[in-house]
Specification:
Layout: H1 8-19, E1 24-26, E2 33-37, H2 41-51, E3 60-62, H3 66-69, H4 78-87, E4 92-97, H5 104-107, E5 116-120, H6 125-134, E6 138-139, H7 154-158, E7 167-168, E8 181-184, E9 197-200, H8 206-213, E10 245-248, H9 250-259, E11 263-267, E12 279-282, H10 287-302, E13 308-312, H11 319-331
Helix pairs in contact: 1-6
Amino acid sequence: MAMEPPNPLVVQQAAAKLRDGGIVAFPTETVYGLGADALSAAAVRRVFELKSRPVHNPLIVHVTGDAMARRVVREWPDDAQLLARAFWPGPLSIVLHAAAIVPSEVVGGPRDSAATVAVRCPDHPVALALLFAFGAPLVGPSANRSGGVSPTTAEHVRSEFSDGEVMVLDGGPCITGIESTVVFLGEESTERDAGARVLRPGIVSAEQISAVLGRTVAGPADGHHDRPLRSPGLLESHYAPRTPARIVVACEAARIAAEEPRAALLAFSLPPSAPAIATMIQMPRTADLYAARLYAALREADSLNAAFIAVETPPTQGAVWSAIWDRLRRATTPRR
């Protein structure tokens, strides 16, 4: 998959729309984001309205690099600089205490001294061109209705919003396909021995972060989250198709393929040539390719009007597979 280069004229038009308080969907290496001026409370509220997003679910702020990141955080510790040098541009979001200029809508909670904000520099030429043209930070939650399957193509975004609501920049399919790793650097983030932990898993692993920082970084804490939330992607049901979905083991996947004509099956181990009554969508066997394919496959399955979606269990070993499992667990949790 190739990322499309930016069209300078279209990027300038998009930046002008953002300056007018408008909303622009832009591609990143992870998923397409719903962009708005991160320092405009009115623009950010419009993003929440379009997505029907819970107000307590915070947003990630996208920046061109550490210089722009410093504008939206209260402090920029050495640890943040180390991580930015190692992983930016790229799929790592760093949570730090928010500067006073960051609206409360962005942080998903009270705008007090404990408020935090996640920042990241995306690794996509269109996203970076837009950020440089706009000249200020942008929020960029996934460009879809809240709780649904994240978009990894421009067409996915257009299926969610009208042209009058959102301007869409087409940068080709997203090459990573799942959202960024989010790391929290701790309450006392200027101290070298401060606690740090991954809040949301992604392509960048806790082990990789630990190697850069020279100390252990904890992984996500199952079933426990800070209040207010310090990261998006922590709600129990998230990334979910409209069709009921469940995870099944290989033998159950084989039975569904052979006996369930109204099922849609995301198959991992079953060969494409296996006899099937169900509609079978073949999934890649490598973690990076599986991640890049996952959301598009869920959307494809959702379009089939199946009675249910079955996802054959993928491997569990490795950071990327762990991130995939995090998305699958949330995608198959019934909505309340």
